[in-house]
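Example (one chain per record):
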Amino acid sequence: MFLALTAAEKILVMMIIAIVGCIAYKTGIITEKSNKSLTSVLLMAVNPIMIINAYQTEVNERLMHNFIISAVLAVASHLIGIALSFLLVGAKRPDYETERLSVVYSNCGFIGIPLVNGLFGMEGVLYLTAYMTVFNICLWTHGVIQTVGRTDMRTTLRHLASPAIVCSILGLLLFVFKIKLPAPAAEAVEQISAMNSPLAMIIAGATIAQTDIRKALTAVRVYYISALRLFAVPLVCVLAFMSFGIEEKVVITAIVEAACPAAASATMFAINYGKNAVYASEIFAVSTILSFVSLPAVIMLAELACGF
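Predicted structure:
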């Protein structure tokens, strides 16, 4: 219950920052073009540097064990999402590719990092990097195939060499070999990492502001897909994880990531591969708004189910 209340408080803070981003877009301070530039800064610089910062902690057997468990839970979470998307989203429906992608892939970077960082600090972010690594591998293999029906090895390898994955590997090496950054570099990395949460929520707010919210909020199908993403996937994960006696921080981090709203990647894929980008952005917007209520509820249920 304590974590659910803490999550609700953190989400309220995130919501206020997102509203600032929404207002900034509506008043012209942030434009569609500048929002894309800010997104690139976040994904290509701030997020990867935050991953490096998460690994700058004292290595011990417990952390290594929990990191491995986190990776296993991440794989399980994505397999659960893929299975539910195939069972509950029919292939005969229009835009089923976008719907399935939105069910499987969560906004674990934009929403997950700020929330997990607020709940568990850098230790939680360390476990989250395992999830994000699995997320990126699945997105650029299964996600591409789900969207266009095929992929090629060269394109897949290029996307897998993203800054987030490269920094995950680099950070893991620093972690395993107990290598610490020099003091000035460590301070710079820490300060850049602190930008992640507010920048992510400002971008999320500006992105939501670009969507026709009234239209999105009246689309019944959007609520169905959002419910699968926000409740069905994480609650099945809770049932799957509750009986293994895994440490609370590890389980809750995995559940938070599985319970995040639909990934912005679904919209990006729709744009890149000629799918319905407007519909993808509507799912993103509605699921993000609903997540401010659903995330604390799912965390509370996970605490009760797992006996924390």
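Caption: The chain has a mean pLDDT of 88.
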